[in-house]
Amino acid sequence: xxxxxxxxxxxxxxxxxxxxxxxxxxxxxxxxxxxxxxxxxxxxxxxxxxxxxxxxxxxxxxxxxxxxxxxxxxxxxxxxxxxxxxxxxxxxxxxxxxxxxxxxxxxxxxxxxxxxxxxxxxxxxxxxxxxxxxxxxxxxxxxxxxxxxxxxxxxxxxxxxxxx
Amino acid sequence: xxxxxxxxxxxxxxxxxxxxxxxxxxxxxxxxxxxxxxxxxxxxxxxxxxxxxxxxxxxxxxxxxxxxxxxxxxxxxxxxxxxxxxxxxxxxxxxxxxxxxx
Amino acid sequence: xxxxxxxxxxxxxxxxxxxxxxxxxxxxxxxxxxxxxxxxxxxxxxxxxxxxxxxxxxxxxxxxxxxxxxxxxxxxxxxxxxxxxxxxxxxxxxxxxxxxxxxxxxxxxxxxxxxxxxxxxxxxxxxxxxxxxxxxxxxxxxxxxxxxxxxxxxxxxxxxxxxxxxxxxxxxxxxxxxxxxxxxxxxxxxxxxxxxxxxxxxxxxxxxxxxxxxxxxxxxxxxxxxxxxxxxxxxxxxxxxxxxxxxxxxxxxxxxxxxxxxxxxxxxxxxxxxxxxxxxxxxxxxxxxxxxxxxxxxxxxxxxxxxxxxxxxxxxxxxxxxxxxxxxxxxxxxxxxxxxxxxxxxxxxxxxxxxxxxxxxxxxxxxxxxxxxxxxxxxxxxxxxxxxxxxxxxxxxxxxxxxxxxxxxxxxxxxxxxxxxxxxxxxxxxxxxxxxxxxxxxxxxxxxxxxxxxxxxxxxxxxxxxxxxxxxxxxxx
Amino acid sequence: xxxxxxxxxxxxxxxxxxxxxxxxxxxxxxxxxxxxxxxxxxxxxxxxxxxxxxxxxxxxxxxxxxxxxxxxxxxxxxxxxxxxxxxxxxxxxxxxxxxxxxxxxxxxxxxxxxxxxxxxxxxxxxxxxxxxxxxxxxxxxxxxxxxxxxxxxxxxxxxxxxxxxxxxxxxxxxxxxxxxxxxxxxxxxxxxxxxxxxxxxxxxxxxxxxxxxxxxxxxxxxxxxxxxxxxxxxxxxxxxxxxxxxxxxxxxxxxxxxxxxxxxxxxxxxxxxxxxxxxxxxxxxxxxxxxxxxxxxxxxxxxxxxxxxxxxxxxxx
Lengths: 164, 102, 477, 317
Fold this sequence. Notes:
The structure holds 4 protein chains of 4 kinds. Chain A is an all-alpha fold. Chain A is about 75% helix and about 0% strand.
């Protein structure tokens, strides 16, 4: 499992990095999906199979499809890349990239600085998660449903055609 | 099963999070900005799952599910707004779509 | 969950149910007035239920929500704000040709989110309450979807709030990874065991998230644009409910954390408070747009509140509670005036639109003047009393630097508030085209009148409100 | 060593069986449809036209594999591969008989749902990458349709999960020793079958391809082997849905006298034939009818099913 974790982590980081470099929206999305899939494998290797499946079903399979859907609705064909290329010139990206590298470096330093964090316990399967979800977190589930309702009503209002 | 030191998991989450931040700083296209917000939220969810695995609790995964719900709601409204923006401004560039000035 | 648990959640349940009912009512029968009446009835019921719930408190309902006097007090404030905004919205949207019903649904959901936020005792409820509030606000800000600036403001708020949420979550996850608990009480207890670097990073990210929501310097960039682009009643909501709920939570749970880690965090918050007070007031001087002026003014006011937060202790709690009551009334009254002068497609926001208001709409001008005086902290208004409480709390905690800045910033503030007042009382030049006279909605006029009475009343005789605060909020400390 | 050998036999056995079934279906469907419509169907090549399969394969392999110059090359090639990979991967969690399965996953059912949600991409990406308006419209329709019907598909299966108390398909089959789940979960079965048809975009849910309106929709621009992969992918999808219906609702390999695997194959064949006959008998609905049918009928139905099932299971302790 350790090997799986490292390989999946590597793929996740690399593909997320490639998302940044893509000027084509759909190619960027494909790398994002790849990154999400490898994060799902990371979840699996951490002993969290339920969220691994949810990551694929909801994140990669529903949320990202919405993004693709929007690309198609706006018909952002291969022609829409020119503008994006401009933003990927070295002078625009050096600043943020250096900032990010510093940020990453600091975070790695901080979390490596303290050795001996305990290893994870046994796998936590769907049953335990569901029991927690509908036990102590029941109000949270209700709130999440209210949150989705707000999203639904808002998206409905914003997305409707003005004529009706 | 999980023999991965927790800090590596957190570092992975931190790197993905930072890449999301970098993406937002770099891109001016609202489509990409929304995409990187998702990347950041996903990284935060990953951090929760890692932390939950460290303590052997289900709470981390529960939080991940809540993050998922949030991400879905944000994307629904975000993409709705994006379509409106494209409709009104004929561009997805946040710098060009800027009427509000003080 | 016992029946007492459910009973103590009654205010929240009422608001949630009302939201669903209004939505279903709009699905089957679209009627603006019906939506308004249902919304008002729901919020009123929730408000009235508060004293009945009060004997059951304090009660921890699961690990997520803590219903106690503190939470109930701020819930009351939030419900009142929701009620007022709903009334203002009615007149604002009456002539609009779009669908107004969804705004009430979103308003109720936002109110619920804010109410959960002040009652939360756990990262999960904190985060979910905050997100419910934010997600409802995105749509409300861009509610007039044919207006370019509304959409732009909505996108800006959405992107920044999304990033903020990610920071907040990542911070929570780091704290959780360190402490092994997601409940605030557990986190505070675990933080006492000796702060680690990882925990500090987590807390830092949390503070970034909270700072964005409060709109304090240096996280204030979104405030003016979003305030300007959003519909006027929504701006009122944004300024009062959204910031107030977040501040109530900050006060409750960060005070113990601060006590543990005296040095670093105190300096951070002190810097933020100073920058907000000065920055907000100085930037407001350069503005010609009333909504933007009010935006910068809200940045400054959050800075004042941070002084009371830093003072902490019973005096600080008292000062924050009173100041928030005064601030809610003042902000809603100010944005209420803007609202009644605006229509969804043509907002009265430039200073010119207010020139000679006194000669066209004397009462409105007087109401606005009272609100501005209260914002500036000039007697006899609630704003002054609030500032005195904050100053008293500051003196008790000997925060001299902050107090000096507070006074200095208030003096600067007087200039731009007076500028609006003077504009209103200046005779209009003959060649200036007068803005068309909109019919003044009756509901809104009653609300504005009542708010002005409250503002002056609190300025002269604040004792009753003080009693309530002492009975509920201060009881905790 | 022996476990490795068994594993290999299982993997390749399943792969071989599935691909064979798909190939036979290419021929079988045409014969059966012809029977329904009172005509012959392919009957020239070999006895009963059986060699038609070989002829079709040769044709597909030797045709010019053309990528339109205006298409997005990378995505254009990726799209047909996605459907093959996701559908074939779904078969890994299916238990065909005791001991005949590739992997026993404790989230087997979720894995299937995850793969089917990934399958959406093949159609959507194909529609986008072709860069032609019919394909784009087909892709748009497909995205909305498959995303919607995935919801009901997942919900309809949760009743089964409640009854079996597990996501593992093997355990679900074993839980049906006493009674097939089709009896308590009849609504779930119906919804799953309909959603399954929609997910594989078969008639009457073939709006993404709709020959008469969109000239084959998302795969208008595809030819030769890439088109073949879409077609074979569809047949494997049909097989997958049938296999899952059998495993989830009709007791999998459980049955008297005959060996388990035979029972499984028999039951599966029945449902494959049923799906083909449905194609022969139902017309295609309008797009808005399809969506409102899904959201206004299937969603409440599957939610009701879930609530009632959960309530009864709770009440019985």
